Amino acid sequence: MRQNLDLPPKLEDIINKGLEKDRNLRYQHASEIRTDLQRLKRTQSPVAKEYPTQRTAISSASSPLQRSGAAVSLPWHPLTCGH
């Protein structure tokens, strides 16, 4: 079941894979999630403008993430923190 209908399904898949309980099914390296996000950005370029990368500040409340009040807070995990 989809959690947030404002998110593209592929982005939700990436988030769910990052939160997967089974470590064998979860991303093994940060570079894997980066690759999937870059692929998503390339295939859905109009959406990429609405979901900027971390380096780009969101300047208005016009994005679906802001309208929905969605926030993604990932728990600490050694694979994502480089330890």
Brief overview:
Helix 1 runs antiparallel to helix 2.
The domain count comes to 1
> Could you list the spans in which at least 5 consecutive residues all have pLDDT below 50?
54-61
**Principal-axis shape:** flat
What gap, in angstroms, lies between the N and C termini? 33 Å
- Percent helix: 40-55%
Overall mean confidence score, pLDDT: 73
Count the helices. How many?
5
Instruction: Tell me about the largest β-sheet.
Output: none
Q: How many β strands by DSSP?
A: 0
Into which percentage range does the β-strand content fall? Answer: under 5%
- The radius of gyration over CA amounts to 13 Å
Q: What string gives the helices and strands in order?
A: HHHHH
Structural class: mainly alpha
Q: What do you see in this structure?
A:
- With 83 residues, this protein is mainly alpha-helical.
- The chain contains five helices and no strands.
- Helix 1 packs antiparallel against helix 2 (30-43).
- The chain is flat.
Outline the fold blueprint.
Blueprint: H1 9-18, H2 30-43, H3 45-50, H4 64-68, H5 78-81
For this entry, give a set of tags.
single chain; 83 residues; mainly alpha; 5 helices; 47% helix; 0% strand
